[in-house]
Amino acid sequence: MRGRLLLGVVVLMAVAVGVYWFAIREGTAEPRVFVPRLAATIGEGSDAVGVTGSGAVVRWLPLPEDSVLPRLPLDEPPEGGRLRGPALEQARVLGAAPDALRPYVAASSYGESGVEVELTTGIELRFGDATQAARKWRAAAAVLSDPSVTALDYVDLNAPSHPSFGGSGHELPPAP
């Protein structure tokens, strides 16, 4: 009886090792580090912290030295580590900016008409709210890359399928 019990335990252990080796081992999780994409900063100098496009304040990640992120108009990060209200709207718009246009983003503000983004050339992009931010950025890129447009002051993106633009005071940013 005792021999059978021992044989059963050995067989069970062999099956368990076989299942692990051939079925589970290949599917085990691999460690990965997720580094969030920063959209803006809060504060200045060594006290500045990054903010993601979803409004999360990222204190643990050093700010990139090679790129300049737009600064949100807050003196210090909010309690709880998440943005709300107009600052969140700005972060969502800035977080949706395509890589090709990010170097040309100079500043962001929130006015009576919603989120406004100023490009380094002085052109103002009027987003309204942050809904459809990626689609609004694509509409802005289409206007800015239109060869018939050589200079303008603003692009209104409230209706991304029909952006309006006007003025002639600012040159377009150079093509990336």
Protein architecture, described:
The protein is an alpha+beta fold and 176 residues long. Helices cover 27% and strands 24% of the residues. The protein contains three helices and eight strands, in the order αβββαβββαββ. The protein has helices spanning 2-24, 85-95, 133-145, and strands at residues 38-42, 49-52, 57-58, 105-111, 114-119, 124-128, 151-156, 164-171. The strands form two sheets. Strands 4-5-6-7-8 form a five-stranded mixed sheet, with helices on one face. It is elongated.
Compile the SSE list and pairings.
Elements: H1 2-24, E1 38-42, E2 49-52, E3 57-58, H2 85-95, E4 105-111, E5 114-119, E6 124-128, H3 133-145, E7 151-156, E8 164-171
Parallel strand pairs: 6-7
Antiparallel strand pairs: 1-2, 2-3, 4-5, 5-6, 7-8
Main sheet, how many strands, which sense, barrel? 5 strands, mixed
Global structural class:
alpha+beta
End-to-end C-alpha gap = 80 Å
Unreliable stretches: none
In a nutshell, what does this entry contain?
This protein has 176 residues and is an alpha+beta fold. Helix content is 27%, strand content 24%. The protein has helices at residues 2-24, 85-95, 133-145, and strands spanning 38-42, 49-52, 57-58, 105-111, 114-119, 124-128, 151-156, 164-171.
